[in-house]
Design a protein that fits this description.
This protein has 245 residues and is α+β, with helices and mostly antiparallel strands. The protein is built from four helices and 17 strands. The radius of gyration is 17 Å and the shape is globular. It binds 2-oxoglutaric acid and manganese (II) ion.
Length: 245
């Protein structure tokens, strides 16, 4: 089931969304309303996309992946030291030294990257539709931010050029503590907007916003739902265009 748009108003749209939650075993859940705020053209904040139960299950899935045999590591970025997050890639591995996608974790332990689970791809598809776009993700980067976690201003531009030109979106899902997500223009210096990404929120940026600079200025410790049992924050970004074709 794709989410149904139930009403629209300037700058904010409302959808009903329950498919993913139901697929995770919640059974009959009441359709949820999700507030969709267009922060920039084609950059949409989906506020409250995931029910608390769906957040809990997804957080558990992230924990299992991250603590599994091919789990968390701290990437060292070309010339800029260690990142302030722990990372696991699914589907393809993003090599922090070469900024290229590959099948094995060559900048870490050389192991084959875990597959991208089908239920996670479906969540990304559903979020993209809610934001008025579409994606067929072939990679997900799962990040864990501790209380001092952050991510510098950057563009997501390592996917295949034709997918960037087509504006195929990045679909981001947040769990746990709220992040101060910063998004600006197409150069580092342009003015920026702070978007608080709370647990269960989505953020989809494609089309005219695909190459906007963005980052995470800070995590707000203790702001996530207690029932997740998560100190810090998970963020999943789904992308299309990692596969070399
Ligand atoms: O954590 C976030 O909200 C953004 C993550 C991000 O930009 C990335 O992984 O490229
Ligand atoms: Mn990014």
């Amino acid at each position: 089931m794709t989410p149904a748009r139930v009403s629209s108003a300037a700058g904010s749209l409302w959808f009903a969304s329950s498919w993913w939650a139901a697929s995770k075993g919640e059974g009959r859940v009441a359709p949820m309303t999700v507030r969709c705020v267009e922060v920039y053209p084609d950059a949409v904040h989906l506020q409250g996309f995931l029910s608390l139960e769906a957040q809990r299950r997804l957080a558990e899935q992230c924990h299992v992946i991250g603590t599994g045999p091919v789990g968390w590591y701290v990437p060292t970025v070309r010339g800029r030291g260690k990142m302030r997050v722990e990372m696991v890639c699914l589907g393809y591995h993003w090599n922090a030294r070469t900024y290229r996608y590959q099948a094995t974790r060559d900048d870490h332990d050389g192991r084959p990257v875990p597959a991208l689970p089908a239920d996670l791809s479906e969540l990304a598809r559903e979020m993209a539709v809610a934001a008025g776009t579409a994606v067929e993700p072939d990679v997900c980067i799962l990040n864990y931010y501790g209380p001092a976690g952050k991510m510098g201003l950057h563009q997501d531009k390592d996917e295949r050029p034709e997918t960037l030109e087509a504006g195929l979106p990045i679909v981001s899902v947040s769990l746990g503590d709220t992040a101060k997500f910063i998004i600006g223009g197409f150069t580092r210096a342009e003015p920026k907007t702070m978007v608080p990404l709370a647990s269960g929120d989505g953020f989809v940026f494609g089309g005219r916003s695909r190459l906007r600079y963005h980052g995470v200025a800070a995590i707000l410790p203790g702001t996530g739902p207690a029932t997740l049992g998560l100190e810090g924050r998970y963020n999943l970004t789904f992308r299309q265009g990692a596969a070399s074709q």
